[in-house]
Amino acid sequence: MTSHRTPLSALERGAPFESRHIGPDAADQAKMLAQVGYGSLDELTQAAVPEVIRSTELLRLPEARSEADVLAELRSLASRNQVLQSMIGLGYYGTFTPPVILRNVMESPAWYTAYTPYQPEISQGRLEALLNFQTVIADLTGLPTSGASLLDESTAAAEAMALSRRVGKVKEGVFLVDADCLPQTVAVLRTRAEPTGVEIVVADLSGGIPEEAAERGVFGVLLQYPGASGAVRDQRAVIERAHELGAVVTVAADLLALTLLTSPGDLGADIAVGSSQRFGVPMGFGGPHAGYMAVREKFARSLPGRLVGVSKDADGDQAYRLALQTREQHIRREKATSNICTAQVLLAVMAGMYAAYHGPDGLAAIARRTHRYAALLAAGLRAGGVETLHGAFFDTVTARVPGRADEVVALARQDGVNLRRVDADHVGMACDETTGREHLAAVWKAFGIDAGAVDVDELDAATGDALPDELLRTDDYLTHPVFHEHRSETAMLRYLRRLSDRDYALDRGMIPLGSCTMKLNATTEMEPVTWPEFGGLHPFAPAEQAEGYLTLIHELEDRLAEVTGYDKVSLQPNAGSQGELAGLLAVRAYHRANGDAQRNVCLIPSSAHGTNAASAVMAGMKVVVVKTSDNGDVDVDDLHAKIAKHGDELAVLMVTYPSTHGVFEEHITDICAAVHDAGGQVYVDGANLNALLGLAKPGRFGADVSHLNLHKTFCIPHGGGGPGVGPIGVRAHLAPYLPNHPLQPAAGPETGIGPVSGAPWGSAGILPISWAYVRLMGGEGLRKATQVAVLSANYIAKRLEPHYPVLYAGPNGLVAHECIIDVRQLTKQTGVSIDDVAKRLIDYGFHAPTMSFPVAGTLMTEPTESEDLAELDRFCETMIAIRAEIDKVGSGEWSAEDNPLANAPHTAAMLGREWEHAYSREEAVFPGSVHAADKYWPPVRRIDGAYGDRNLVCSCPPVAEYDE
């Protein structure tokens, strides 16, 4: 018998999850620490993190649990949700996600771990998928230019309001909203309008534009098509009258209805907005879903958000890229047209693929089926003596039941169907792709009709459609071959694989983007997202049906408050930009409640991300820029001067910590104190929170409010450029001003600023990811992850320092979680540009770090804690090899015009041609330690961005262009 005995308790625990999440093991950490010059992680922490902000207490979080235990806990939470057949409607509908799309897009790391396509040569699959989405939106709305998605329908309507004011002829006046618009959209519009001085007027426009509104002036009009009540109205006369008044007209339209109804463009609309959720994307208790916006051609260059365009590469071959990037916030800052710096790419891809899989005929068939169920539902109600409000509708029926609405809704709920209580006298019912005959029977029964006496087939034969003849669609749509070639599962499966093979995502290798924190999105964290108990819940379902969800939400709020040192957290903002806006609106409301309405100046360091300035303007604030000193810190002298100059006008300082330059600034507490002494508030941008968890708490070292990027620090994947979640944490005095929601009182305080998202808890469908991450890691695991992230960044900085200058460093020559590699002097000496380096990294099998932000001509590099030492070394050795290549250009061995950097990236197609370069084929495509068997081949050569902007094409090009 062996004398060695391992206790059962240790065997039961197994390997802690942190050892799966954190790439370098103990031995590798020791090697890295030796390179950096420290003996332990704690010793490095003491040297890197200023003592004045360092936390001494451990995080008060539940002890870390195993992956199996956490999944079991999530199963228990999911079981406490009650998923009924939803007929609530209001922009959220049951849908059937084709399994080939569910498995090979939503659940595929090749799609969900990719980053925003800022390196388009290695994002061609994603960009093609987004171009498909844009084509779907443009075709169905009848407007030629669609963006690559917005955050949701309600915020898309708010963006349309801002666009209307900016581009329209009427610069004053009101924004006129039809009373039949979605209530959550109206609420978001009010939140967004008030700080910028826009007046919202809600009126019944079924009889035209009221004369009193016309006399005041109208710069924009919003119509819902079909309306929230279900009504389908011919809006042409209203639109024509609005145009006579000089207004820009937006139609919020249901995409499925548009397969049967005349398009907004043909009705005369200038802008169309809406949601693509019912195109195969689960409701997920409110999100994430891809909102959309399409515009007339004359507004294309003012479109907010991202736009995929067609360009060409160095060989003249067709290639895709993000178009018109000069509109982005990091360039325009406070002059930006919007604070939206992201999209809902993963969900837009799903919606576009849903359309490609079904094609125009399949989509129309789903729409006709949905409409028939609604028509039969209404006919059965009328036959049973129940009054319905509208004779023309698509999928939603509103019934009048004086004083009985609560009773009807409760009876339907008993039979497994959720209806919408409009008011005490009216009930709304929406049919969708998942509606069945049994659901009609349950609804009829709830209204007191004997469902057994209704023969559905006889009713079907006797009931006509309820769509007006004058609004039936007659034009063709989705005619491009992509919507006809992938109808079989085999074809769709291969199409998805072909596109994903053209992309570079975390499943291939490291994406060392500074500030973007591309780290492990563990499968255990991802798995619950597609469980029906989480995915199938309507955001306006009764709270008692979402007990498990609400428990998860409140626990995540509390745990995020603990790790950040704040008193309260709101999870509603569905992107970091929306978190910024919500936080600044809370500050604004606080000042106004204190009688300090004059406080409207927002101080922002010159190095800040551009969304900060754009968000401040949207919150009704005036941006004042504070200088950045030579070492990358906030210029404290200039800060004090700006504080003194603006006195009692100071509202808030927005500062990123650690700084955008990747440094722990030592003066952060003094900076916070100076702002507080002047009566202002401090907003700490949480983009770099991955350097703080377990080491320091913004809410304890002087900040009043922060947004947190759950798609960065808390492991929600970037999804190729979305989804994201940007919740805000606040200290107690700002808690009364957190976002709330008119349809879910539990979502925020009664005194709140209003909703910043269409759904009460924003993108609730992906919150299980962050909940699971915190639960798996525990307090000690989060702290260690942060320490290893800081170690990894310093390891790269030390290894590359002999070859490239590292631009900024803090105390003891250390960086935080990222380092800035400076290429500017090499560019001056050799002509090799930062673009050349970024594209050459592709040949070595890497995604480039963040280019030219916050400093032009540099690479901001963040390795995160999830990359192991082998991958870190592969990156360092690649950068060292590229430096040697730059030296060859500098020495004249390679010419400035013909070298592997200038011609990068190199495609497989180049190898089949006559080789006329001064360097070999092997040097081009197999540099360094790149092996042929593992080679990532970019599908296109370097893309000509300027050509794409000059020749703007933003939907699927004609087939003839493919043939060419």
Automatic annotation (TrEMBL):
Residues 785-906 form the Glycine dehydrogenase C-terminal domain. It comes from the Bacteria. The modification N6-(pyridoxal phosphate)lysine is found at K712. Keywords: Oxidoreductase, Pyridoxal phosphate. Residues 1-20 are annotated as: Disordered. Belongs to the GcvP family. The glycine cleavage system is composed of four proteins: P, T, L and H. This is Glycine dehydrogenase (decarboxylating). The gene is gcvP.
